[in-house]
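Obj.: predict assembly geometry.
Materials: sequence records (below).
Method: joint structure prediction, all chains together.
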Amino acid sequence: MTQLALVIDLNVCVGCHACVTSCKEWNTSGWAGPMVDQRPYDADPMGTFFNRVQTFEVGEFPNTETVHFPKSCLHCEEPPCVPVCPTGASYKREDNGVVLVDYDKCIGCKYCSWACPYGVRELDGMQKVMKKCTLCIDRITDESKPESERKPACVLACPTSARLFGDVHDPDSEVSVMIREEGGFQLMPEWGTQPSNHYLPRRKTRIQIFEDELERVDNPLDKEHPLPAATGDTLDDVTF
Amino acid sequence: MHPAFSVIFLTTLIGAAQGMFMALVTGQVYSMANLLEPQDNVTFYFAGSMITLVLLGGGLAAAVFHLGKPSYFLTRAWRGVTQWWTSWLSRELIALPAFMLLVALYGVVHYMGWTSPLFVIKGVIPVDISLIIGTLGVLMAIVLYVCTAMIYVSLRFLQEWHSSLTVANFILFGLASGFTLTAAFSAWSGVDLVGFYGTWAVVFTMLAAITRGFSMLRNRRIKHKSTMRSALGIRHTKITQRSMGFMGGSFNTREYFHGKSNATLESVRLFFMACVFALPVALLAASNAMESEYLPILAFLLQYIGLLAERWYFFAEAKHPQNLYYQTVG
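Observations (raw structure tokens):
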């Protein structure tokens, strides 16, 4: 079974929001109709977004770290939003595990958005149906595109390659290897939703260096501490 | 959660309607057992069923406004009955019309006076068609209570709702308001059942006070499973949000928070505790002593307004874990 998903590397994300804007651009002009913005240039703008980048500060000054945190639908393996839908508009695709909403069946009751602990579903302000990240289903299944472009818009837009896309059920895929080898984790594991999207943690690259490794004890150029003069037999004198 | 008035009206109106229907059938069973005076088919049972039906219709109308667009009621809502295998909301959408149908049939049977016994059990219990429909209706009312409550109970990460106390509350609040309404209806139509229904109303109100009291106590002490640490997967005790990613509003900032202060919440709580529990009990007791025909009506109106506040509080007190991601605009 294929389970397409994103792996987001928090160690690499710089919080530039390129994934947010490219997601909005692709999906608002795409197959599923606009993601409506209301009052975009007024005091109280509202809009539908599938993807957001949030920023958190970890620790207390001066020992702080800034974490940019892209957040979109995690395409759970046990999606709590799907079984609660009364109309069957919310579903998980059998062939690739992408969680989708049929906008023609949705009645906008918002029950699925209550049932999502991550808050990644949004009711479109104009169409009044529930919308969410589709993993750019119209891109990734479009066989007229070359293989390299059959990826979600956010993945293609990311300038630092913080977003990886692939099949997390294939143990040899790039995403599976990254999850396995770089400490990939899931959000809110306490609810048993088994999110398919994984995050890679912040990782520090450290080399261990001791004092004496920084300065050679027998540095021939060291003028302050001249080498002790050889006295008595040297190794050469006693060995053959 | 953000309290939606459509759902507040839906759940309180149909809750009272289910309670009233159960009160009517209870009265019929008591009078069959010769414990109460038999009542008139048309002015009591038919009129009572019609009041129930009006409340159910009002609830349904409120529910229509919970849909994204009211027009979806005509074009799409029929699909809502298709996912009953997994969705409690779908089950409610089946149980509500089924219950309305049974209530309407019950009313029609009484109006037409088809109440001659079909058969007699053990020579003492005469069973007529209204008793059969009434019993089915009572069962359906219980099913509907459970469906309505399970919509909330089944959301396991809304821990304030995820408790069997929620089911008990929905049933007992419905029964309390339904029996109070039937007492008010009896008082208004001059039927000598105010004491009977009033007593049951007081009993159910007291029971509701106990279960709601326990659930409020539980919710006060609740320990939320989701934390910033689990939401972000970062092992640190101090994580502060610096930006939620946008400066304007969004669905996430509107739908999951009541937007009121803790002081408002507290005053709503005190208000509903007075209006749902204390005042109706006092008024029903007073009406029993004074034989007033207006006090039970006042008791119902106060209790219903109190229940609106209670349902508002029910939504407001539930804390959705997604709010962890939306704490600071930026």
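Conclusions so far: The beta strands of chain B are 119-121, 125-127, 239-243.
To do: check interface contacts against the pulldown list.
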